[in-house]
Amino acid sequence: MSVSNKPSLITSEFIVYARNEFRLDWDGIHGAPHWARVRHNGLLLAEHTGANRRVVEYFAFIHDLGRHNDGYDPEHGHRAVDIARQIAGDLIEISGEELDLLVEACSGHSDGHLTADVTVMTCWDADRLDLGRVGIRPDPDRLCTAAARKSGVLNAAYERSLR
User: Fold this and answer.
1) Which spans in 22-145 are helix H?
2) What is the CATH number of the domain that holds 127?
3) Domain of 130?
4) Domain count, the chain
5) Looking at the whole model, is its pTM more than 0.90?
6) pLDDT of the chain, 163 residues: tens digit per residue
7) Rounded to whole angstroms, how far apart are CA atoms 154 and 140?
């Protein structure tokens, strides 16, 4: 079973919530297609990093959910943290330890950090591997995990990000 065919933790109730919460273009550069690619990248990386797949998947759909614009929005990660905490146990089934990792991943995902828990680093790399959608080829030196820096993984993610 390929990564994209694995059952998703994301429920239809979450999607309804996300559609109501998300202020930007659903199909835009920070919208649902980006989230789906981040999920794909993250689950693929998790097979090699051993990251918590639940956190990786929830990160993919929450990390940009609180954006107010598609440009400079330094607080969007912190708004994603608030969203994650608000819906934990209701729209997302997540343990306290997993929520802590999700909070760390969301809050720091656009700060350029390179070291953290392996699950957090996997989340960050999953997002960074999708930079082609905004005309940026991911720099291996700005990726956290060896799995993300592999040329085959990086090139395939870049190609996906252009579609």
Assistant:
1) 32-49, 53-62, 76-87, 96-108, 118-128
2) 1.10.3210.10
3) 3-161
4) 1
5) yes
6) 467 567 899 999 999 999 999 999 999 999 999 999 999 999 999 999 999 999 999 999 999 999 999 999 999 999 999 999 999 999 999 999 999 999 999 999 999 999 999 999 999 999 999 999 999 999 999 999 999 999 999 999 999 999 8
7) 8
